[in-house]
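Field: sequence (string)
Field: structure_tokens (string)

Example rows 1 and 2, in order.
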Amino acid sequence: MERLEKEKGKIADILNHDLGKHWYDSIKLAASDSKRAKKCGDRLDAQYVNMLKIYVNMLKDAPVSDADAKATKSREYVDGLFQNGGPSTDAFVKAIGMEKARDMFETVVFGVR
């Protein structure tokens, strides 16, 4: 995670996009970031590519996770999205309704059912 955070620091001068407070903030990785920039597209694109490369290399060395524990955490997260809301979740609920949105999140997006 140190390498990701260091990479994130390279664009610390670009204005942050305040996403507000959300129920899931406590589980976001420290390297998570959101920027508000109109003239920095090339820098943001380059940073995205660099962070993706770092992340993929981290995965190569990561231990295999317990499938049951991962499924449980994923189900808890999906439940949290539909109990507490989230930007994309709310948009899908509004567009296609609660039942269809939940079905899509459980089967397609997170594969918990």
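Row 2 begins here:
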Amino acid sequence: MNKLKFPNDYRCIGIFERNTQNIITKNINKQLKEMYSNWHNTIINKADKRNLTFDEHNGIHYLTCFDSYINSNVKLMIIGKEANDKDYKLENYIEDFENDYQHDINYSYEYAISHPKETYAKDRKNTCYLKTRKLVSNFDNNLKSCSEDLEKAILSVLVNNLNKTSINGKLTPYNDNEFLYQEFKYNQLTHSVYVHELNILKPTHIIFLSGKGYDKHIIRDFGKDFYEELRDKIQSVNTNNKPISTTLKLNNDSIEKLLGIENYFTNINDELKIIYAIHPSAHMTVLTRNKYEESLKEFIKDRN
């Protein structure tokens, strides 16, 4: 592996190439890049940029497909609250998309997580959200595996957020730069960027790690019909004795009805499984935290 010339220069670390060898992975990433470019052209570049507060907003949160995601029986997406990329601001992401997306620099955080003994990785805090991300990724905290195995683990889970860009990683109103979440057409589907991501990446399991207060964000991102189906799950969670909801299961017909995606699964008997949870950083008793973690592990128990 190439030695880094500067501590914060992650452009030549090889993490993207190492973990995207599968032809299926390459094809999906090609679709993602086309879709995001379409999003930029039809939504961002045509918007009145005077409405954008570039200096306050973090970079846009894009998704990427990796081999370990494709190879997993459980294709998992977790959805948090706010995108919190400290390396770039929104303006940089729009301008530098072609140069940085699907290149090593865009995965410096994942590299730091999976190479914790590197000196330049030690400023990454092991937050409650990151601990939960490691938990559902089957990440070996004891470092018994080599770093490349840790890369595969952390990259096997798709990490998304209800806000694709946020005000310095803080609580961001649902109507902040709302035009970013408007529908656009790609591959015969007209919907928000979130539904296009689902249509391309086809997760089999989704965990909302969003907690209360994000109902309008979900309506904005996935549509009112989807929210109505999920609403009882959202309302059922609390920090006292039910940190995670029961599972919502959607078959092909339900997915087409709620999201407009046709033939989501090749096997018509498969179902998209969704749970809603309080955010990992919420204050929980030890018993509740244990229940929380055990419920997450149970939800993805069929991972290989």
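free_text_note (row 2): DSSP finds twelve helices and seven strands in the chain.
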